[in-house]
């Protein structure tokens, strides 16, 4: 009884401290501590992965940096918290992180029952399959009876079950906690096929000792809109994260980049003036300085720059823009007007 009481008091104390920290608002808390605590993956090239010097890089990392640039004026003011798929939502709910930017799929259940808000889509994706070329398989419909490597705590597990049931096939799941464990299991021959979001498959493929021996099958079996996540109940922070992404997309659409942003401040285009703070008043709607979006573009770049250096054709992943092209170029990336 005594142990139970002490545990309950400790838990209550933790909840009270967490609640007090969040009661002032996440923006105020971020300003007080001087950095954004951002939940990322345990290591996924192109999205969130430390380099050989320990510097975090990737498309999801750039979203964290954009929020830091908008709120603190300095994109480097981020503390990265590596999280597994099973840990990520608890870390956000508990207040351990301010923002989750970790290749996370926006779904009804997650949006409606976990006390979380998705703040947009920074990568439109879909689930696929990675196989060894030696397997001689050209289509996912040839995988009946296959052993499938899969990461726990993801929508991938549910999509896999749906797909195999739809086509009357059977499979043997081989479940791992992290993407690194999953790809090692695949390479060690513990499974015939590895399934995940296609972007992740390209990232995991380059980690193989011989990437040319593996191929991604053509089927895309799901919709996986990936994006940043915040806690419900703090509309100001929700808006800041959402509009940090929108500002990067808008900058690309308007032709504003990290290279020309200083010169573009003198543009006569009203949309550019509002974006970069030359026309005053937009920042106050978010509780920020009018230079919030300028800082994002200057220090991190527009969405196109983020995409290309991390996952695009010039990166090791070599992914085409596809659905992630701007709406003006046949893609789905579209931001509401900044006005």
From TrEMBL:
Pfam families: SBP_bac_3. It comes from the Bacteria. Residues 35-264 form the Solute-binding protein family 3/N-terminal domain. Keywords: Signal, Transport. One of its GO terms (biological process) is amino acid transport. Residues 1-23 form the signal peptide. InterPro entries: Bact_solute-bind_prot3, Solute-binding_3/MltF_N. SMART domains: PBPb (SM00062). The keyword Transport applies. SUPFAM superfamilies: Periplasmic binding protein-like II. CDD domains: PBP2_BztA. PANTHER family: AMINO ACID ABC TRANSPORTER PERMEASE, AMINO-ACID ABC TRANSPORTER-BINDING PROTEIN YHDW-RELATED. Belongs to the bacterial solute-binding protein 3 family. This is ABC-type amino acid transport/signal transduction systems, periplasmic component/domain. It comes from Hahella chejuensis (strain KCTC 2396).
């Amino acid at each position: 009884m005594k142990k139970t009481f002490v545990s309950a008091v400790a838990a209550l104390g933790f909840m009270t401290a967490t609640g007090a920290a969040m009661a002032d608002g996440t923006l105020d808390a971020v300003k007080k501590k001087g950095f954004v605590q951002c939940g990322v993956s345990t290591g996924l090239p192109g999205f969130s992965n430390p380099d050989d010097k320990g510097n975090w890089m990737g498309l999801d990392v750039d979203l964290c940096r954009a929020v830091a640039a908008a709120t603190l004026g300095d994109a480097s003011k981020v503390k990265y918290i590596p999280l597994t798929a099973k840990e990520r939502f608890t870390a956000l709910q508990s207040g351990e992180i301010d923002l989750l930017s970790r290749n996370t799929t926006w779904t009804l259940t997650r949006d409606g029952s976990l006390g979380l808000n998705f703040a947009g889509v920074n990568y439109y994706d879909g689930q696929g399959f990675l196989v060894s070329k030696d397997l001689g398989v050209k289509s996912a419909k040839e995988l009946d009876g296959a052993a499938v490597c899969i990461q726990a705590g993801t929508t991938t597990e549910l999509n896999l079950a749906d797909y195999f049931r739809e086509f009357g096939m059977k499979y043997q799941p081989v479940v791992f906690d992290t993407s690194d464990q999953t790809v090692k299991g695949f390479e060690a021959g513990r499974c015939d096929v590895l399934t995940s979001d296609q972007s992740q498959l390209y990232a995991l493929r380059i980690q193989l000792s011989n990437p040319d021996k593996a191929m991604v099958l053509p089927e895309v079996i799901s919709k996986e809109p990936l994006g940043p996540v915040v806690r419900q109940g703090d509309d100001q922070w929700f808006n800041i994260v959402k509009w940090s992404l929108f500002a990067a997309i808008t900058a690309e659409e308007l032709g504003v980049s990290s290279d020309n942003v200083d010169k573009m401040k003198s543009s006569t285009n009203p949309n550019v003036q509002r974006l970069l703070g030359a026309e005053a008043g937009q920042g106050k709607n978010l509780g920020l300085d009018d230079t919030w979006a300028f800082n994002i573009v200057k220090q991190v770049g527009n969405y196109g720059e983020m995409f290309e250096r991390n996952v695009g054709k010039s990166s090791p992943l070599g992914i085409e823009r596809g659905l992630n092209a701007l709406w003006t170029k046949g893609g789905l990336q579209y931001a509401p007007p900044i006005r």
